[in-house]
From TrEMBL:
Stated name of the protein: Dehydrogenase/reductase SDR family member 11
One Pfam family matching this protein: adh_short
InterPro entries from the UniProt entry: NAD(P)-bd_dom_sf, SDR_fam
Stated family: Belongs to the short-chain dehydrogenases/reductases (SDR) family.
MF GO annotations: oxidoreductase activity, acting on the CH-OH group of donors, NAD or NADP as acceptor
Source superkingdom: Eukaryota
This protein's encoding gene: Dhrs11_0
Species lineage: Eukaryota, Metazoa, Ecdysozoa, Arthropoda, Hexapoda
UniProt KW keywords: Oxidoreductase
UniProt key word Oxidoreductase: yes
Length: 280
């Protein structure tokens, strides 16, 4: 991790779950983290939880003591579906911190919306967050890394749903969004190779993760079929995989990393499960 020490990582959806766990691990390894989240209160809670053992930025970057072995946390409230807001954050990092070294595209939602009776409004909202916002952040990371001559790393928190079809009712749009990320990661690697860039792109696809923070309403809550007694990872497991990919030498690029709970499989079932009307 020495190559990233004192570098700057942008983590989206940093306020809770995988984003918060990843933020903490990066800070522990000496990487400064610009944590983005649309919910300012979650960023504030995270910053408060870091105060005991990690230095939190409370003023301008130039006023912070960089002799600390751990990284500095810069919380930024940002709606990643707002292109200008995203660009403003990257501009700030370029001007104040010298550019982005690592992007962890973690923000995303799970929402039940059937292909048979869902609404265009829901589908558009879904894809804006899970796909298009990820593309904007990746584009801005590339621009920052190129401008500052940084051979950086773009890490996408994907899902095994990007590699298999979930049998769960009304989860196919989530399937589609994660499959799109799988394709776009390979497409990004292809375009980077065409411009002779040394920027790495990694897709990390976890299986079931115990992270209830993203299910804040009935619409966003998974069906009872999903929240069964099956084994699940914890956010810290996924954060550890982020560190694993960053520890690779410059000549090595982990393109895809699938991590699942012990005792589970990538493909859950061969056939669709029967629909429980209470799950609609």
């Amino acid at each position: 991790m020495d190559q990233w020490r004192r570098g700057n990582a942008i983590v989206t959806g940093a306020g809770s779950g995988i984003g918060a766990a990843t933020t903490l691990e990066l800070l522990r390894h000496g990487v400064n983290v610009i944590g983005l989240d649309v919910q300012s209160e979650k960023l504030e809670q995270l910053a408060n939880s870091l105060e005991d053992d990690l230095k939190t930025a409370t003023s301008t970057p130039k006023d912070n003591n960089l002799n600390n072995q751990q990284g500095i946390f810069y919380p930024k409230t940002c709606d990643i579906t707002d292109e200008q807001a995203v660009q403003d954050v990257f501009d700030w990092v370029n001007a104040e911190l010298g550019g982005v070294s690592v992007l962890v595209n973690n923000a995303g939602i799970i929402m039940r919306s059937s292909l048979l009776d869902g609404t265009l409004k829901d589908w558009t909202f879904f894809m804006n967050i899970n796909v298009l916002a990820q593309c904007v952040c990746s584009r801005e990371a590339y621009r920052s890394m190129s401008k500052n001559n940084i051979n950086g790393h773009i890490i996408q928190i994907n899902s095994i749903c990007g590699h298999s079809i979930t049998p769960y009712y009304a989860h196919k749009m989530y399937n589609a969004s994660k499959t799109a990320i799988t394709v776009l990661c390979e497409g990004l690697r292809h375009e980077l190779s065409l411009v002779n860039s040394k920027i790495k792109v990694t897709s990390i696809s976890p299986g079931s993760v115990d992270n209830t923070d993203i299910f804040n309403t009935a619409k966003f809550r998974p069906s009872s079929q999903v929240v069964s007694s099956r084994p699940a990872l914890i956010p810290e497991d996924v954060a550890a995989m982020v560190i694993t990919t960053l520890k690779t030498p410059p000549r090595v690029e982990i393109a895809e990393l699938i991590v699942i709970p012990t005792g589970s499989t990538i493909q859950s079932h061969g056939n669709p499960l029967p629909v429980n009307l209470s799950d609609k």
